[in-house]
Write a structure and sequence with these properties.
Layout (H helix, E strand, L loop, with lengths): L23 H14 L3 H10 L11 H6 L4 H12 L3 H10 L6 H17 L2 H17 L1 E3 L5 E3 L3 H22 L6 H18 L8 H11 L7 H12 L8 H14 L2 H6 L6 H22 L10
Antiparallel strand pairs: 1-2
Helix pairs in contact: 4-8, 4-12, 6-7, 8-9, 8-10, 12-14
Length: 305
């Protein structure tokens, strides 16, 4: 994916919005932005994009294109579903994340982290990773059947990273404004490895082939727990959204399910109808992501390293 310009950074939870306008486009963009960025969104936007200094990733890097595209809405939801299949990771989320009580707050914190590490200064990226590692050190416990877990465990962190990167890349290749070529896909995985290392992941994958190998290596540890199925129901059927937002969210949710590997969807008892996916799910996902891009213009130009 060589040749990324600052205008390739499309609308996502990571790419904040200019000041609200009186147009339909402006109101819609402001509504989306306020949900995913929170009350400090404008201030965070300014700090990320206006602060001078070296960045981890230059404007040509694939990670900026992927994390700056509206396809992340579908990829992010699919990643949560996939990550839930590791019992220890799911137990840690269920016990410590508070996602049910404050789902928007969790989304906003995740969006801020991705924004800072992708577009922010190197110092800010290091600080964000350090804060996450400090939180992980305090997250410990056991699953319902007695398996201990620690959020700081490099192996568990590796699963979360693998599932996330795989989902983000799958979504971008299907719904992104400009999908990556093979070289760009490998470069994206290599870019995300830098963030993973800063979080404590050991030997993260650096190519798409390595990503697939790592996913296969975790398969024997994955299984569905009651917490995983409950989480899937919450995310797909009972999101904390007003009625008017349910139809577009439904398109995002359907896209997220269709994005899952077949074995993962089957494990979560989520329906997969290939014909319906081709005729309905993908066109709807494409339409929704296009609408988000329209509503949320690209962020201001950001400096490279």
């Amino acid at each position: 994916m060589p040749g990324t310009s600052t205008h390739d950074a499309e609308a996502t939870p990571m790419n904040p919005l200019p000041s609200p306008r009186t147009s339909v486009r402006g109101r819609l963009g402001h509504l989306i932005f306020s949900r995913v960025a929170g009350p400090d969104g404008p201030g965070l936007r300014a700090r990320i994009h206006d602060t001078p200094g070296p960045r981890w990733f230059g404007p040509e890097r694939p990670v900026r294109r992927v994390h700056g595209d509206a396809a992340m809405f579908i990829g992010g939801l699919s990643a949560l579903l996939l990550q839930s299949l590791h019992p220890q990771a799911m137990a840690a989320v269920a016990a410590h994340s508070g996602f049910r009580g404050d789902p928007w707050g969790r989304l906003q914190r995740t969006s801020a982290f991705l924004a800072v590490t992708t577009f922010g200064t190197s110092d800010s990226a290091y600080e964000a990773c350090a804060r996450v590692r400090a939180v992980h050190e305090r997250v410990r416990g056991a699953t319902s059947d007695g398996q201990p877990y620690a959020a700081s465990d490099p192996h568990l962190l590796g699963w979360v990273h693998t599932a996330e990167v795989d989902s983000f890349l799958r979504a971008h290749q299907l719904y992104g404004a400009r999908p990556l070529d093979d070289e760009g896909c490998d470069a994206y995985v290599a870019d995300t490895a830098r963030i993973a290392l800063a979080l404590g992941v050991r030997r993260p994958p650096t190519t798409r082939a390595e990503l697939a190998e790592r996913m296969a290596a975790y398969r024997g540890e994955l299984r569905v727990t009651p917490e995983a199925r409950s989480t899937a129901r919450f995310l797909l059927l009972h999101p904390p959204l007003p009625l008017l937002a349910r139809p577009p969210y439904g398109a995002i949710a359907a896209g997220a399910v269709a994005l899952l590997p077949t074995w993962a969807a089957r494990a979560l008892r989520l329906p997969r109808l290939p014909l319906a996916e081709d005729l309905c799910v993908r066109p709807l996902g494409t339409a929704v992501t296009a609408a988000i891009r329209w509503a949320m213009p690209p962020p201001p130009a950001v400096a490279g390293p």
